[in-house]
Design goal:
128 residues, mainly beta, Metal Binding Protein, Guanine Nucleotide Exchange Factor, Chain A, three-stranded antiparallel sheet, 45% strand, metal-binding, Yippee_fam, metal ion binding
Length: 128
């Protein structure tokens, strides 16, 4: 196996809550209106230090999408998903973008986010 290189970001960052590996910059947040099983999720234009899993078709609240789960390179925990293909014309802006589940991240101030309730609805979520 090859050597693992981890990108260290500068500025206000989101990191994996388990191992603190940097995954995204605050300035790369496109939307904070997404939902997942654990509550809030954010759409990012760019993420780092993740590996991409197998592509699969998922029916989301906004229609059918081809997505792949993304995993932290530091500890292997699943931190979100990447949109590969949006089948609805009005959802094409998501292609190539990644969603990180807020529950699985440490915020820019180093704090974690633990949702007390599961939210359903809003923008995209897990299976509809």
């Amino acid at each position: 196996m090859g050597r693992l290189f981890v990108v260290n970001l500068e500025g206000r960052i989101y990191s994996c809550k388990h191992c603190r590996t940097h995954v995204a910059l605050c300035e790369d947040v496109i939307s904070k209106a997404f939902q997942c099983r654990h509550g809030k999720a954010y759409l990012f234009s760019k993420v780092v230090n993740v590996t991409v899993g197998e592509k699969e078709e998922r029916l989301m609240l906004t229609g059918m999408h081809t997505v792949a789960d993304i995993f932290c390179v530091g500890c292997g925990s699943m931190v979100g998903w990447k949109y590969e293909t949006a089948h609805e014309k009005n959802q094409k802006y998501k292609e190539g973008k990644s969603v990180l589940e807020r529950f699985k991240l440490a915020g820019p101030d180093g704090s974690g986010y633990w949702s007390q309730e599961v939210h359903v609805g809003g923008s995209d979520a897990d299976d509809a």
